[in-house]
Amino acid sequence: MPKSHPRLTSLPAWQKLLDHYDQVSGRHMRDMFAEQADRFNDFSIHWEEFLLDYSKNLITKETKQLLMELARECAVPEAIESMFNGEKINTTEDREVLHTALRSDTSKPFIIADGDDVMPEIRTELNKIEAFCHAVHSGKHTGYTGKRITSVVNIGIGGSDLGPHMVVEALEYYNIGIHTHFVSNVDDADIAETLCRVDPESCLFIISSKTFTTWETVTNAHSARDWFLTSGASKSALSKHFVAVSSNIDAAKEFGIK
Fold this sequence. Notes:
alpha/beta, Rossmann fold, two-stranded antiparallel sheet, 12 helices, 12% strand
């Protein structure tokens, strides 16, 4: 279990950052580039085809040093190690935080959580996701009338909306022609306007809710379900057009997702 630490604002590095802010807040970005010819190289990261350019932020090399100092005072390195070791750092639910396992190289021999290796199950689920995506992209998985899937509607809220929304925008260059929509607002107008732009015979809905009880998400999901069924589709066609990202398998099946 992670140890308790002093409040962030009481740490020495925090005060140093406040003082540092007073020194740099009045500076102009043009002057910072003029004074540092290699600023872009110092404040950017290249990885394969991706570029993260943060050189146009009001920061200096000292800013980075102070932020790293703050991270050390907050015991971030120790927390990272605890997360990678599968320790229960989620104190609210008293459970492990296994994002690292989901994002790790699937060839990694093992990641132990609560005494068990979680990697075999993760490999199995990732393979299922990959196979489903290929089926949609290739046209093997079609709508109930045989039409290819040309639109995807993600229904979620919070991280279940912001996460996939960010990924879709970031990787738009690689889009193969599937139009993606996001519904997170419980206002009826949001789901209604989205449904006006898609075809029930060629649309795939992703219901993203860990518990499948999130009120906003479930409300919008039922609105989409009702719209789909009133379009002429039968309940048996639901599984062709609705998938779930959830740990509540029973609730998803009751909704009509297989």
